[in-house]
Design brief:
3-stranded antiparallel β-sheet, 3 strands, Sufe protein. Chain: A, mainly alpha, globular
């Protein structure tokens, strides 16, 4: 399994940072989650039921065969939004094969288990799992 360079850089920075920085960074990332573009209808989003907070996602292939990701989470869920923003920043625009090769637990390498609850970690795992299932479906189509 491998991690694209941009995501690996985020992992390395977070892992090398103090616990307080990781918490602040995750909350900062929550503010960077892009809103849904006008061409994405809410009915196209799939809910990740395993998340404690309402979380929805959709994936599409662009004209170059790169994966585009769309996430929706309420502002009241900053850790979920922060993780989604990390995934978006680190993986949006990559090939399906690259995304499918990302380790399912990469967020542990960031040291997030030290700053968020096990329940939230399970939600992160579910988000990444759902994302990969959608990407695999895109690849199979």
């Amino acid at each position: 399994m491998s991690v694209p360079k941009k995501l690996q850089t985020m992992i390395d920075v977070m892992a090398a940072s103090p616990k307080d920085f990781r918490t602040a960074a995750l909350l900062d990332y929550s503010k960077r989650l892009p809103p849904l573009p006008d061409h994405i209808d809410a009915s196209e989003l799939e809910q990740v039921e395993e998340c404690q907070s309402p979380f929805f996602l959709a994936t599409k292939l662009d004209d170059e065969g790169k994966v585009r990701m769309y996430f929706e989470a309420p502002p009241e869920a900053p850790t979920t939004r922060g993780f989604a923003a990390i995934v978006h920043d680190g993986l949006d625009g990559e090939t399906p094969e690259t995304i499918l090769a990302v380790p399912d637990d990469f967020f542990y390498d960031m040291g997030l288990a030290e700053v968020i609850s096990p329940l939230r970690l399970r939600g992160m795992s579910a988000i990444l799992g759902r994302l990969k299932r959608q990407v695999a479906s895109l690849l199979a189509a």
